[in-house]
TrEMBL record:
It is found in: Nucleus. Keywords: ATP-binding, Meiosis, Nucleotide-binding, Nucleus. Pfam families: AAA, AAA_lid_TRIP13_C, TRIP13_N. GO terms for biological process: meiotic DNA double-strand break formation; meiotic recombination checkpoint signaling; reciprocal meiotic recombination. CDD domains: RecA-like_Pch2-like. Belongs to the AAA ATPase family. PCH2 subfamily. One of its GO terms (molecular function) is ATP binding. InterPro entries: AAA+_ATPase (IPR003593), ATPase_AAA_core (IPR003959), ATPase_AAA_CS (IPR003960), ClpA/B (IPR001270), P-loop_NTPase (IPR027417), Pch2-like (IPR044539), Pch2_C (IPR058249). GO terms for cellular component: chromosome; nucleus. Plays a key role in chromosome recombination during meiosis. It comes from Panicum hallii var. hallii. This is Pachytene checkpoint protein 2 homolog.
Amino acid sequence: MSAPMEISFSAPPPPPDAACTVVATPALVPAAAVSSSSPSPPPQQQQAAAVVAPSPADDKVLVSVEVLLHATSAARHSDVQAAVERMLEARSLSYVDGPVPIPADNSFLIENVKKIQICDTDEWVENHKVLLFWQVKPVVHVFQLSEDGPGEEPGEDDTLSTFNEWALPAKEFDGLWESLLYEVGLKQRLLRYAASALLFTERGVDPCLVSWNRIVLLHGPPGTGKTSLCKALAQKLSIRFKSRYSMCQLIEVNAHSLFSKWFSESGKLVAKLFQKIQEMVEEESNLVFVLIDEVESLAAARQAAISGSEPSDSIRVVNALLTQMDKLKSWPNVIILTTSNITTAIDIAFVDRADIKAYVGPPTLQARYEILRSCIQELLRVGILTYPQGGSVPCILNYSTLREKQHCPEAAEPNGSFHLSSLLYEAAELCEGLSGRSLRKLPFLAHASVANPSCCDASTFMHTLIQTAKREISESRG
């Protein structure tokens, strides 16, 4: 996690058109609109305001701005990038994660751009810092989604495919990164690791002096989103490095297809698979991500085989896997992503090769609340849930705002945003120990329990959700 932003009161004052304080709730907030009608406070009060002073140009916070083009757009990426940079500079905005509205008077962007998204500011917001426009250097990434589905590589005797292949960024994974909620810092840690791993190799750092393998191991209980996080990470990196690599691919290895019915053939199948992967990475403009899900099925501990509890063929599989992964180290444009539910079953030599061994556990209370909140908002969007008494669509408060307002008099409002958010918070508290997969299934199970599924108001649904959560927790504990 990056170090918290330093607060300084002795640096030069902010630009004249900037507000002294900004409370940012949307993705981008006009800084000048916050206090334009208020008189300027005395200098003493300005010094007391908790505002981060402007930074030197080379000390600005880099914030990623992802620009998704329409599938039909033929505009040059460099032209779109320049147009977005001009738009951001002209609007004097503060930066928070989320979508950015495209100005109605910008016909070029409206014609070519489907979505503009601010990313990577979550850690600053967690530390109650607002990134104002003069502190930020936006890094604009322009991309289009591949609409091709996964391609399959047939296995021996045309049985199971040995791997699935996606061209990235893929339409199938659009929005996946944002939907995954973990403790603050985990996703940023993975992004920064990948950037460093690619940079070290490209700059020719001597691996005999500084060691790294470009291997990630995510481990933890089932249902916590490890595989989805690997796919989302590959998608995100394909966007971030699009200007450096003209083509990006995700190879998802089908581990079960690599075990042959013929004794001693499994090691040869692993070698054959990695030979195909090596052919892909030989193209320098191609960035390849290799995903091995449940890697313990391939990298089983050799000690178990030696003791006789595993067939000796598994030793050949582990040896072949380690040998092939070591060969890939010489190529700068490949990253291996692995997951495991049982880390104790993985060969220690493989674990030792992983640069990052990140535990992905059950979601925290905040993550549980935000997961359920995203589900409720989706049901409201499509009209499956309605606002009580026929009113407008309610705003389900985010976790931080709800915690701040818990002692406010708004609690008396029977069907308001605070009331609905409090019920959702109660459901999130009950769901301790449930995986992210189970949490996203919970609203469906709750809806299946309501008396009138075709017309269900949000308040009634929240009470049903609480009862469903109690039942699921009770059943999961036996």
